[in-house]
Design brief:
Helices cover 41% and strands 14% of the residues. By secondary structure, the chain is of the alpha/beta class.
Length: 263
């Protein structure tokens, strides 16, 4: 009998069989233009692969005119009634709602269980917030938040401070991404990632492994890099249900060397 051929989406296919949300985190450190650009492309990649996504924006406050997580927490029973008609990718303001969950986050599985109940029909829940917010909400969770570094003013300094804060927790080891916007052969496209790696080595004694995603042409070959990154992020995400624990690790394991521009 012939073996099933392997391809770059085989891991994502195994994730679909479990159909239970995973919590992904992206660090907000002031470089919103670059961070949101990569976040939206990741969300679009997951959606194209068939995974409904909800982004919880910890920096955006809910209100009567801007409802979000706080309103879902107040009325959880109606949150999923229209999921079949809802968009596969949604962004919710979540500052107040996440703040209200902080006392429960210290309890075992407190935050993840609340989110699992609210977003039971999703495959990916993205928590977008600063390093302190992530640590307050998930003080003991083993998680790999995404940190984006670029050539934007203060991006290197702010990303270094976020990296230092998360590494100091002892259980969060961020995935650092340098989304290049120019020719991949140009030295300047790699300077931000290299510079942050040098800072981590010199000041934190940390051997930082980072990846670079080219973003010049959205529909060009580097989109395959984005898909591999989407798999890697999900692979290291936090399960919102015990159903993920029964998956074989080999089904979703992605070697970092498969990134054509990894460092």
């Amino acid at each position: 009998m012939h073996e099933t051929p392997q391809h770059q989406a085989v891991g994502l296919g195994s994730l679909a069989r479990a159909h239970s949300a995973r919590l992904v985190a992206m660090v907000s450190h002031g470089d919103e233009e670059t961070e949101l650009s990569l976040l939206w492309r990741l969300c679009l990649t997951w959606v194209r692969l068939g995974y409904p996504v909800t982004v919880l924006d910890a920096g955006n406050l809910e209100s009567a005119d801007n409802p979000g997580l706080a309103q879902l927490l107040d009325c959880p029973y109606g949150s999923g009634c229209n999921n079949q008609d809802a968009a596969a990718w949604s962004v919710l303001p979540a500052a107040a709602g996440l703040h209200s969950l902080r006392p429960a986050a210290g309890a075992e599985d407190g935050l993840t269980r609340r989110l699992a109940n609210l977003f039971s029909d999703d495959d990916v829940v993205v928590l977008y917030g600063n390093a302190d917010t992530l640590l307050q909400l998930l003080p003991d969770a083993v998680l790999q938040p995404v940190i984006v570094v670029s050539s934007a003013p203060k991006s290197l300094l702010n990303s270094y401070q976020a990296l230092k804060r998360l590494l100091g927790s002892g259980h969060m080891s961020p995935l650092v991404v340098d989304p290049s916007a120019a020719d991949i052969g140009s030295l300047t496209t790699a300077s931000a990632g290299f510079a942050l790696a040098d800072c981590a080595k010199n000041f934190l004694a940390y051997d930082l492994k980072w990846i670079r995603i080219q973003t010049t042409h959205e529909d060009s070959a580097p989109a395959s890099d984005l898909q591999r990154m989407a798999l890697r992020v999900l692979e290291n995400a936090l399960p919102l249900s015990d159903r993920w624990k029964h998956m074989a690790a080999s089904e979703t394991k992605m070697d970092a060397r498969q990134f054509s521009r990894s460092h």
